[in-house]
Amino acid sequence: MLADVSTMHSLRAPLFTPAELTYAAPMVSKSADSALMLRYCDGDVAAFEELYARHKDSVYRYLLRLAQNREAAEDVFQEVWGKVIKARASYRRTAKFTTFLYRVAHNCFIDYVRKHKRHAMNCEYSDELQMHPGEQPEAITERLLAKQRLNAALAELPEEQRDVFLLYEEAGLSLEQIAAVTGSNREASKSRLRYATAKLRAAIDEPGDKQ
Amino acid sequence: MSDRRDNERVSKAYRDIASERPAAHLDARILKDARAAATPRYAHLRTWTRPLAWAATIGLSLAIVLQVTEQPVVEAPAAVQPASDTVLESVEDKRQDQDITQQLRKEGAAWTAKPERVEEAFTPNMEMLREAENVGRMKASRAQLGAEPEAATALSDATAIFCDEDARASAESWLECIAKLEDEQKDEAARLERAAFDAAYADAETP
Predict the structure, then answer these.
(1) Domains of chain A
(2) Closest-CA distance of chain A to residue B52, Å
(3) What pLDDT, in 10s, does the model give residues B156-195?
(4) Is residue B35 within 8 angstroms of chain A, CB to CB?
(5) Contact B7 A45 (CB under 8 A)
(6) ipTM of this predicted structure
(7) Which domain holds residue B125?
(8) Same domain assignment for residues B85 and B156
(9) Which of A6, A14, A161, B71 has its CA 20 to 30 A from that of A110?
């Protein structure tokens, strides 16, 4: 079931509260990212190390879920950071660093797909779960199954929808920024995100999670 | 409201599964590349090349200044034989010019005969040009010495006439004079006299 207009408006708000956002770069650090990049442009390697530590996990997961192939994701990941390193000579603070970084990642992935035509989708995602203290084995199993269902649902999403969902979740980008990264407009991005979220929600609820 | 709660559930579920991290070797490689890019390629050279360049410049300047200021003034002896010098010089120059012209003609023939051997044809030409340049330089220096007779004395020893006017009056007496110089082991004088003789009697066969 697709969301109505009011739901579409609700999508403009973040899907999560900022306090819970531990896996993507916090919003408060966005301006500092550009400053770090500019410091790196001046030869400060420590600034790059900090920048890399902030974004490496989310960029890697974005590419891993987009490519659904670990080898391809690693290749593109290296290429993305290589381009960021090369961009130090010409980097200007014209957009948020995150937007710049994910635009590079998005374009690198598109190039990779074009170059390799068909990349095998045989990714085996990690089955590791973040353990909660005092969690029962049944609950762990349940979460593991939910993870597998979500991974499968993500894999089944059309590439554009998956791209938008991952940019939203991993990079924490706004719809305008997603549109800038993917080269589409805001409405198209919003629509794709809405469809992707609806499908994933359905996948999570599938085995009777909903009472 | 429930949609938003559902969306948050999707978000939370995604966060639960999103635990992958790049491999350590990728981190190491990227950070290494970043460090390499931030370090200028020839930075280590710049630390010592500039002082070295300054030191070399200063040292060279000092050497030139010392050379110029401490150069001794040479006083040449006054004895000069300008008239006989000019005769010998003109004879010698004429002979060298003739040699150069002949060689250039030969080279020109080589060019037309074997145009494909450009290098071989060109190399002697360069030698001839160099020789012509030397002749020009000699002429210029001699012209200068003619204007400054005192300075010309240094050269006069080398180009003095060894056979006098009487000896040069006829070809036989001149050749006798040359032979005498050769007997006396005055090879350089004999060579100069022979050159002058050859120029004066270009058509005659020399023994």
Answers:
(1) 24-122 (1.10.1740.10), 135-206 (1.10.10.10)
(2) 26
(3) 444 557 888 888 888 888 888 889 888 888 888 888 888 8
(4) yes
(5) no
(6) 0.73
(7) 81-160
(8) yes
(9) A14
> For residue B21, which residues of chain A lie inside 8 Å, CB to CB?
56-57, 60
For residues B96 and B143, state if they share a domain: yes
Closest Cα in chain B to A76:
B26
All residues of chain B having their beta carbon less than 8 Å from the beta carbon of residue A10 are 3-4, 7
Kindly report the CA angle at A186 between A188 and A27, in degrees rounded to 5? 125
The answer to whether position B176 is within a domain reads yes
pLDDT tens per residue across span A202-211: 888 765 544 4
Does residue B153 lie within any of the structural domains? Answer: yes
Interface-testing mutation among B21, B30, B39, with chain A (most A C-beta atoms within 10 A):
B30
B13 to chain A, closest Cα gap in Å: 7
Please, which residues have CB within 8 angstroms of residue A38's CB and are 6 or more apart in sequence?
A91, A93
What span, in angstroms and rounded, lies between the C-alpha atoms of B69 and B57? Answer: 18
Q: Give pLDDT, residue A10.
A: 41
Judge contact between A178 and A164, C-beta under 8 A: yes
